[in-house]
Write a structure and sequence with these properties.
- With 212 residues, the chain is α+β, with helices and mostly antiparallel strands.
- It is 19% helix and 27% strand.
- The chain has four helices and ten strands.
- A hairpin with a 5-residue loop joins strand 5 (120-125) and strand 6.
- The protein is globular and about 60 Å long.
- The N and C termini lie far apart (65 Å).
């Protein structure tokens, strides 16, 4: 005899699967309130082909900063057609000697392809603290597992362009530097938990705009 619980779970999974395919898409309605699940759907009668096209990745990002790195996003917040589809893209521009600082995406796996450049050190740090890194050149692809810290360093002789795709239409990002030094977390707490010198912490807080 089939368990009622099994039937309930099976019916629930089936209904969820069906619900996810009831409509073809859910173009973001930026005029409506945003909820935990993302943007509300735009009235299908108001959807146009322009909702599914984004041209921003053809323009280099501003790299005038301490990292000599800039990022251009094609995420749900500026590419309405991505809403609810679980994918997005971005473009990173890295000058010679520049870096994509150590960061993670808690909610997305990242797949990158080197569009321009050579001798770009790309890598990530696994949860057992093992580092996986390798020099990448134009045309190379690397996958960066969800939630793991990763980075890029342009050791080549020309600027680099890195295209990235994400397994989320709204991937979040957490930079290690700003997480520690661009907030009001007390210096003595950081010193005790990282073993960094208090004077160095204060210097970095001043650099990133943190307090305490």
């Amino acid at each position: 005899m089939i368990s009622p619980i099994f039937l309930f779970v099976f019916s629930f999974i089936l209904s969820c699967s069906y619900a996810s395919h009831v409509q073809d898409f859910c173009v973001a309605d930026y005029t409506a309130p945003q909820g935990p699940a993302g943007y509300s759907c735009k009235d299908p009668a108001k959807v146009t082909v322009d909702d599914f096209v984004h041209s921003g990745l053809g323009v280099p990002a501003n790299t005038s900063n301490m990292y000599k790195f800039g990022f251009t996003a094609a995420f749900a917040f500026n590419f309405s057609g991505l809403n609810g589809l679980g994918v997005s893209m971005g473009r990173a521009d890295v000058e010679v000697g520049g870096v994509v600082p150590i960061h993670s995406h808690p909610g997305a796996t990242e797949l990158v392809v080197i569009g321009e450049g050579s001798s770009i050190i790309g890598g990530f740090i696994a949860s057992n603290n093992k580092v996986y890194q390798k020099p990448l050149n134009k045309g190379d692809t690397m996958v960066l597992p969800q939630g793991l810290y990763h980075f890029f360093v342009n050791q080549g002789k020309t600027p680099a362009v890195i295209y990235a795709s994400f397994s989320s239409e709204s991937p979040t990002v957490q930079l290690l530097d700003t997480s520690l030094f661009k907030n009001d977390l007390a210096t003595d707490i950081i010193a005790k938990t990282t073993l960094l010198d208090a004077a160095q912490i204060q210097k970095l807080k001043k650099l990133f705009g943190g307090t305490n």
